[in-house]
Amino acid sequence: MNSRQTDIDDIKRIIISKDHIAVEEKAVGLILKYQRDEEILLLLCVIFESDWHFMHEDIASSFQFIKKPVASKSLFNIAFSDFEYQNWNDNYPLQRKCTWALADIGTEEAKQYLQEIEKNANTTIASFATKRLQNWDKEINRKGQI
After folding, report:
1. Which domain of life is it from (predicted)?
2. Closest to 113 measured CA to CA, from 136, 138, 90, 92
3. Which of 49, 97, 126, 127 could join 121 via S-S bond, C-beta 3.0 to 4.6 A?
């Protein structure tokens, strides 16, 4: 079995067993290692959207770094998340990271997701999307998929 298949099997095991420690140890590294592999990134999106770990901000930042459109839907979904472990923070740092990541992905789909966040999220989170949309053209050099 090759390294890629071993990693796929490991990601599936992490998902099935809800292994939050493995997410802490491996998720970001796997995103960076397989940033051009949509199949693996989609599996990592499943982890990202799961509520049994605490690595959402790190994963969002990694998705922002790689700027791959395959993560757009998950970033959109997480922008509306309400994970219990983050309820104490009314500054919504995870949701802010998601809006930045969508802006940096830079596709028309990502822009539409930001518009949906702007329309449907609470006032604070909507303001993050508004800012990214207002600066869309000024930040064009940050975009991964222009």
Report:
1. Bacteria
2. 136
3. 126
